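Bench notes, afternoon.
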Amino acid sequence: MQKVIFYCINDDWTNFVPKLCEQLYSDNERVLLLCDDDEEVSFLDSKLWTFSKLSFIPHGSKFSISSTDGEHCAVWIASAPVYYNAPNCLVHNGLTLSNDVLNNFITIVDIFHENKFSEATERKKQYTNITNIKCWKNTNDGWKNVDL
């Protein structure tokens, strides 16, 4: 059964993504991290290399590893849908995606900034065939489940 998890954050998504990828990797998820453009791909690729001295997240992008070696990466970072690492989880920052893309994933993580709540509410409509949808908002008291 597919599920969608929205994360409403109060920071730049590039600061949130490494922590999320670390958690997804520890949960044995294989992730396609879909970015707005190649500049963001390159930035997040380098950020994941230096994110934590205590953990390593096997990842790659067209800037750091051959696509033929993508199968060895728990996280593949790209600006267009590719399936080199056989991902079951899609992470993105509020992109509108076709059902052809969405249907390839068991888990879809949609990250948005708190000032784009209404856009996320509208984007929720693209997940018409998915009934398991949650939204978590980062607050001063931690993560709270909220209606979207």
